[in-house]
Amino acid sequence: MSSSTTSSTFRRAFKSVTPTPTSTDTLRDRLAAVLPHGFKFAVYHLSTPPTKTEPLCSAPPDERPDKTFGESHFLAISIDRDHDAPAFLKRASPGADEAKATEPRAQVLVFAVEIFIFTTAYSTTLFVGKADSTGYLHLLKLPKGTSSPTRQVTAIFLAYLIEHRRRKNTQTIVNLFARAQSQYLFPGSVQNDGKHILDDRGLVKWWCRVLNPLMEGLRGEAWGTPKGYLLVPGLEETDTMAFVPRTATSADNWVIGHPLEKISHYVDEFDWVPPRCLIPRYPDDPKSRFRDELDEEVSKRKQGIWKWASVKNLDQFWEMMSFRQECSSGRLTGFIWLVFNPTKKDTAAQAKTTTSTSSFDAPFSSHNPPSTPPRRRVDILAQTPRSNRGSPLKQDLDGSPPRPDRRKKKDKLKRKKKKLTGPIISRPPKVKRQLRNYLLDRPTSTKYYYWPPEGRGAKVVSESEYKRDIELLLHLDFSTLDKAVGSSRRWISQAGVGADEWGASVLGKAKTQGNLFGSVSSGNQGAVVTNLTGLVRRKRPSQETGQSTAGSNESGPISINVLDAGWIRKKPKDKA
């Protein structure tokens, strides 16, 4: 698919940029816009409610950590095993002529992605955990030259979560760690010959191509100017630029480096912040493990300061990171960030509110210009009143009367209770007629997160149930088609227990072209694409070459250049 066709497809999928309660653009509709035309897919979206979790970054000395809430989202896509078979297969019982039962088509999982969301009062962070495919997408028999829709599906799912988690005056961050492996979520899929496994360089380029349309599609007044950051430990800046997609706006969108100092609110509040307070802690992340190793070298006397002995700043951290963990295994690894800063309107509105609040304290003048008040530190111990019940001397000095004992009040309440008399009427038991998911009984919007109904999964489960479903998937077998069908059936049935609607059917609407590099008809139908296939020629066997040459020169003899003996010179041998 050409770059113009791909960008137009993403623009149509990202048409509703600002999440509003009246938006009817669902995840199913967006996925249908990028999936191949005329093919049926089944979408399974599993998620957890916002739950209080450990903070991503450690707080500076004498500071409280940020209150953090976490969510988990898992998206899986399956197809029919027999695409050309009828929708239902009739199975007759032995000795009977009539069809007795019908069974649906067998499903096989083809792609899955897992995303974690961490929200605080200052930012919303989306961390891409794992993404993997089984390699059975060839069962659809797509036209030759059609690109795999996994890249578009990943980008659409990320954009959908970003739009439905946007909050005013809050920074939105997308982060991932690209590490090439043969399989992530589907055990045994590496034995499938149809699976296309990317190497280390190809995987970093693939993720950059996934995230680049997010910056171009979400650019506007609602999002401002997003920035992408790419860091490959061990590579220079010029070599790292080769992984960035070559588009018209890629030079302005991408920055070689890391944004850890720009996405932390501690940098704006303090003059100096320890490096460990700027490094987030993600699940299965190498920089988090390296940070834990550096914490072990800190003595107990200096644990309150958390000043590392070997690493003094973030530059040294990333320099040593290239020799630690997965970065030193001989393969390239990439750390990628997307940062969506608050728009200028939101920032101006917040500054206006702060200025109006501080205007009541003192009038403005040339000696007292308007400015944001400094951060106030509250001494909790100084404001907490101490109890004087334990010391009679302090009661006399204060002059306050002694507090009544709570035990006497409880005794009086017990005495006032009356004994129940009369016949005992039994209450009928309440019959539970419908299942109720108590996980949904949570506020939609708070100071720390935004959880709209549109951004939730088709099935909302608890954290323990979510981990059980993921662990089940990691213990199945997808080495062959029969085993993959059985494993897919087991996971779909186990993960969908208790769900009213599980497995939304999606019909693809994206039109595919048989020849990717072929010319498109000019005019109003589309842009003209230059055909370059004729410029690339492969080496043919000698027999075919001779036949084609003889057929093309039937009119005249074939001229052969013969070199004379004088043109050939032998290298003289050195005499020992």
Walk me through what this model shows.
- Residues 543-558 have a biased composition (Polar residues).
- Residues 405-420 have a biased composition (Basic residues).
- Residues 1-23, 349-426, 536-559 are annotated as: Disordered.
- This is histone acetyltransferase.
- It catalyses: L-lysyl-[histone] + acetyl-CoA = N(6)-acetyl-L-lysyl-[histone] + CoA + H(+).
- By secondary structure, the chain is of the alpha+beta class.
- The chain contains 16 helices and 13 strands.
- The protein has helices at residues 3-13, 27-34, 150-163, 200-217, 237-240, 250-253, 266-269, 286-296, 314-321, 344-358, 380-383, 392-398, 406-416, 463-474, 481-495, 542-552; strands at 40-47, 51-53, 68-80, 89-92, 99-103, 107-119, 123-133, 171-178, 227-231, 254-256, 334-340, 459-460, 504-507.
- The strands form two sheets. Strands 1, 2, 3, 6, 7, 8, 9, 10, 11, 12 and 13 form an eleven-stranded mixed sheet that branches. Strands 4-5 form a two-stranded antiparallel ribbon.
- Helix 1 runs antiparallel to helix 2 (27-34), helix 2 runs antiparallel to helix 3 and helix 14 packs antiparallel against helix 15 (481-495).
- The longest helix is centred in the middle third of the chain and has 18 residues, at 200-217.
- The two termini are 64 Å apart.
- Mean pLDDT is 75; it is low at 15-23, 85-92, 95-102, 353-398, 513-535 and 543-555.
